[in-house]
Write a structure and sequence with these properties.
Radius of gyration of chain B: 26 Å
Largest sheet of chain B: 2 strands, antiparallel
Helix content of chain A: over 70%
Radius of gyration of chain A: 19 Å
Structural class of chain B: mainly alpha
Number of domains of chain A: 1
Order of helices and strands of chain A: HHEHEHHHHHHEHH
Number of strands of chain B: 5
Oligomer: heterodimer
Order of helices and strands of chain B: HHEEHHHHHHHHHHHHHHHHHHHEHEEHH
Distance between the termini of chain A: 45 Å
Largest sheet of chain A: 2 strands, parallel
Shape of chain B: globular
Number of helices of chain B: 24
Chain lengths: ~325, ~675
């Protein structure tokens, strides 16, 4: 019975990230539109988009290979598994030990690998430009992310996300220089990895400026739905990571009674909502960068993360 | 017992080499030679596996009255040599199986067949040797046999240059090792490893021996800046030999270093750990950055070997640093990471070189910009090559990720090191390692994407064909092993435990008894990873989603022309090439580091001549190390040339002064 309960708790987490992901995207779009004095699409528009795309016929190029057809599912699966393993409303869930923070970063790497290959599959210049730029961004953002992972791991003494959240929540971590630098780096990485302004514009269809959109240019129908769903999941995953590493208050322990779990869930959803509102506010304040400015942007995240790790190696108290 | 089996296997390899000389010209000679080499490798592999499983019972040694009369030849199989025998013979067996099919396309079989088993014999013998003399003889034999294989296609000018540089670097490396052993043997001339183990040299001598071993073994393994021969020589050989050179012979270099630094010298100093860490980190990043800029598939793979050797040496450096400070259990973690990466890299690098060989057989091309779309013509090769690419890019659930993850875990426990210099060094190396992991993904997206995906760029790529069954079987076996080693890493870790125990007097906790086959290097509360669960989750969520969508939404599919934003260009050379794919990385990281220069020759409007775009990339090792070195040698040589034309009086004066100086040296020495 206890085991069933444990599995159920994990299952709820896996399901909840998938269910709220389009809504999170809807909130960011709505807020952004309001900030630009537009009415904006309804909050639930991403669900309708996904529904519509799933029921449409998928158009494939004549020379599209199996890589092209499998990549959306592989990418979606990797992102979903990663998102399902980040603690959201409760820590120490039954599968929390299956993958630690480093493994979750690597799972996102798997998703990106699949998508970048898909961009090259049909053999168009746009697909290539997207893949090539995506890998450039990743080649700086992924190590920066790993270094942020090192930062929290060195403070908490573990790379297990669940244990990290528990440590940050219960012990006297306090305000730390390293955590501040880590948060700064993490936010920049999250912006870059989720193809948001100023790195990439999720709404663009201007060929020369796009990165993520260029890679998926040829996709349609259910494949496009998978790619879009994975992108939405990734945004939610980064929100969950931020919440779990830096603001984990309110997290319930796995075996807690239902009211405590409900409270944890409410806290998680509230925090996600706040982040989903903050993101477009930040986005509307800046302009998109040109491609060869990216390294400066992500490089500063990398530098901040290196500095944080460096400080922690010098003294655990930083 | 394992020593005797090992030596018989070496003898059998030599017999196969003799057989190759006799039967090589026959049509059936090629399969015969590779088939026998395969069988011998399998026997050696099984024996080595048995030896490793029995390792706690103690090492087996043998003394033969061969070689120098007052030394004889010592051979010994302990846990370390058994582990490396497994690495050698596993890839050796795969390469031999691959060779049965691939060898048929060899234009001059007599230049490959006799040397191939001899090369395998040499590598086995290095690992079996238990005294300095037999070690060096075996080492040099291995180098010469591999040199002959590098020179197999000697009519190509580039290969001749590669062979020359390889020969120079190999002799230099052996010279350094000779020096290291000389220092360790001491004035009494104790050449057997057993004697070196018991005697403990004083600190200065140990440091000198360590430095010489690092340079000597590092030149074989491919540490920056001693790596320059590697990207030239490895691609020059036939592909199954390239796989052995890159996947296995570099590991024999690692073996030489581990044997001397951990086993023979004894207590390491923190400084040695620092140096190895730094060299490893730099090697990893420079190797993979350079790999990103390559257009030749085999050269790209060779440079990526440099990166992986860097990762292995980071693990070894951490192990040295921990060991020097008495942190045995952490040293065990770092050592396990390094050994696991040795094993994993031998698997996926062999696989990738086999894949490159298959591409070469199938299309006749290894320049990526002239390939493309091979996934349609060579579907099976594409799958296994993709597995190799995923594994080497350290993507879960494949095996490359596990060893990389363990290395990161070892870095995360290193704040406990007492020395401030090491504390400052480790985060830098951690950042370099993280960078190299990300570049590896970019590099192999390019390698697979440009070669196998897209549209064929040349008629040769369009007419490519799938390779034979033997080659495919070898590649598939390695691909399955790559996945298995990633999904069940606990077994591998337990297998390396006796090796780690023998080197650093500690081991990481046993993994076999853990629930769900997870791996837990230190403690459950600290970190754990479960490849099997990840694979199950990935597979189930992916198939579940696909099934749900196909069942409840739609599975209708229509084929149509490429859309490409409304302006599809028919010419396949409008696709991204390997150089354009690498352009952002080249521009961001290469301009200062590699002194990249781009030359654009754009004709004026109305001018009908074609435009030209050239990119020049310089290896900093050539610019800053070997260029000045070569110039220095040439200047010194031309100066000294004057000594040839002196009068007899001057020669006599010279001899007189030389005698005086030598006498002074002898007088002060005593």
């Amino acid at each position: 019975m206890a085991l069933i309960y444990d599995f159920l708790a994990q299952g709820v987490q896996v399901a909840i990230v998938l269910m709220i992901a389009p809504l999170v995207l809807g909130v960011t779009r709505k807020v952004r539109a309001r900030l630009l004095r537009r009415v904006g699409p309804p909050l639930l528009q991403p669900y309708s988009d996904l529904w519509k795309l799933m029921h449409k016929e998928a158009v494939l190029a004549h020379n599209a290979s199996w890589v092209y057809r499998v990549a959306p599912y592989a990418m979606f699966a990797a992102t979903w598994v990663a998102a399902g393993l980040v603690p959201t409303y409760a820590h120490s869930l039954v599968f929390s030990w299956a993958a630690d923070l480093i493994a979750i970063v690597a799972l996102l790497g798997t998703a990106r690998f699949a998508l970048a290959l898909a961009g090259l599959d049909v053999g168009t210049a746009f697909g290539g430009i997207g893949s090539s730029r995506e890998m450039l961004i990743a080649s700086l953002a992924e190590p920066a992310m790993l270094l942020v992972a090192f930062t929290v791991a060195l403070i908490a003494g573990t790379t297990q996300l669940s244990a990290v959240a528990y440590h940050m929540m219960t012990s006297e971590v306090g305000l730390r220089v390293s955590l501040g630098l880590g948060l700064f780096a993490f936010v920049m990485i999250a912006i870059a990895e989720n193809a948001r302004i100023p790195i990439d514009n999720p709404a663009t269809h201007l060929e020369l400026t796009m990165v993520h959109e260029a890679m998926i240019l040829e996709y349609s129908g259910r494949h496009l739905a998978m790619v879009e769903a994975a992108a939405a999941l990734k945004l939610t995953l980064y929100f969950s990571l931020l919440i779990c590493m830096f603001i984990p208050f309110g997290l319930a322990p796995a075996g807690a009674p239902l009211p405590a779990l409900a409270l944890g869930m409410a806290a998680y959803l509230g925090k996600v909502l706040v982040l989903a509102v903050l993101l477009p506010i930040g986005e509307t304040a800046v302009a998109k960068m040109r491609v060869f400015r990216y390294p400066v942007f992500i490089g500063s995240a990398f530098a901040a993360a290196v500095l944080a790790v460096f400080l922690l190696f010098v003294s655990q108290r930083f | 017992m394992p020593v005797i089996v090992g030596l018989w296997c070496v003898a059998a390899f030599f017999a196969v080499a003799v057989l190759a000389v006799a039967a090589g010209r026959h049509r059936s000679g090629t399969p015969l030679v590779y088939g026998s080499a395969f069988l011998v490798s399998v026997v050696a592999l099984v024996a080595a596996l048995a030896a490793l499983l029995n390792a706690p019972a103690g090492a087996a040694a043998l003394h033969l009255p061969l070689g120098l009369p007052w030394i004889g030849a010592h051979f010994r199989v302990d846990a370390l040599s058994a582990f490396f025998l497994i690495v050698i013979n596993l890839s050796g067996a795969a390469a031999s199986l691959y060779g049965v099919g691939y060898g048929r396309h060899e234009p001059s079989p007599m230049r490959v067949l006799p040397f191939y088993p001899a090369f395998l014999a040499g590598m086995n013998l290095v690992v079996l040797a238990d005294d300095a003399f037999s070690f060096l003889v075996a080492w040099e034999f291995m180098s010469l046999a591999s040199w002959a294989l590098v020179m197999a296609h000697h009519t190509v000018a580039a290969n001749v240059r590669a062979g020359y540089i390889y020969l120079l670097m190999a002799s230099f490396g052996t010279l350094c090792l000779l020096f290291a052993f000389g220092v360790l043997a001491g004035p009494a001339g104790q050449y057997s490893f057993a004697a070196m183990r018991t005697s403990s040299p004083d600190a200065t001598l140990a440091l000198i021996a360590f430095a010489a071993a690092l340079i000597g073994a590092g030149s074989k393994a491919g540490l920056v800046p001693l790596h320059v021969w590697l990207p030239l020589a490895h691609p020059a050989a036939p592909s199954h030999v390239s796989a052995l050179l890159s996947g296995v012979m570099t590991k024999v270099g690692v073996y030489g270093f581990v044997r001397i630094a951990f086993d023979l010298i004894g207590e390491p100093t923190p400084w040695s750990g620092l140096v190895v860490l730094g060299v490893g980190g730099i090697t990893a990043v420079l190797g993979i950055l350079y790999a990103c800029l390559q257009h030749d598939l085999k050269r790209l793979l060779a440079y990526s070997t440099v990166e992986n050797i860097g990762v292995i040496f980071v693990g070894l450096g951490l192990a040295l640093a921990f060991e020097a400070n008495g942190l045995d259990s952490m040293a065990a973690l770092a050592m396990t990471a390094a050994l696991l990466h040795v094993f994993n890299h031998s698997l996926f690098k062999s696989l990738l070189f086999f894949g490159a060989g298959a591409v070469l057989t199938g299309s006749g091309e290894r320049h990526m910009d002239r390939l493309g779309g091979l996934i349609h013509r060579m579907p099976k090769t594409a799958v296994v090559f993709l597995v190799g690419c995923c594994a080497i890019s350290a993507l879960p659930p494949f095996n490359g990720f596990v060893s990389e993850w363990l290395t990161f875990q070892a870095i995360l426990v290193s704040p406990q090191l007492p020395q401030l210099t090491l504390k400052l060094m480790v985060p830098v190396v951690g950042a370099l390692l993280a960078l190299s992991a990300a570049f590896a993904a970019a590099c192999f997206v390019k390698a697979f994407g440009v070669t196998f995906l897209g549209r064929p760029r040349t008629p040769a790529a369009e007419a490519a064909h799938e390779v034979d069954g033997f080659s495919l079987a070898a590649m598939m076996a390695l691909a399955v092993l790559c996945l298995a080693a990633g999904v069940f890493p606990g077994m591998l870790i337990d297998l390396t435990a006796p090796v780690v125990t023998s080197l650093v007097d500690a081991r990481i906790p046993g993994q076999a008894a853990l629930p769900w086959l997870s791996i837990v290097p230190i403690a459950q509360s600290r970190s754990s990873y479960n490849g099997m669960i990840i694979l199950l989750f990935l597979a189930s969520s992916g198939t579940l989603t696909a099934a749900v969508i196909h069942r409840f939404a739609t599975r209708a599919t229509r084929r149509s022309a490429i859309w490409d934003c409304g302006f599809p260009l028919a010419a396949p050379n409008t696709q991204y090439t390997s150089s354009s794919f690498a352009m952002p990385i080249r521009r961001v990281f290469g301009a200062t580091l590699f002194h990249v220069r781009e030359y654009v020759d754009m004709p004026r409007p109305g001018d009908m001549r074609p435009g030209h775009y050239r990119v020049k990339v310089f290896d900093p090792a050539w610019r800053f190390v070997y260029g000045p070195l070569a110039r220095g040698i040439s200047v010194t040589a031309s100066r000294l040339n004057g000594l040839q034309f002196l009068t007899i009086r001057r020669y006599l004066t010279l001899v007189f002064f030389a005698l005086i100086v030598l006498l002074i040296v002898v007088a002060t020495w005593r």
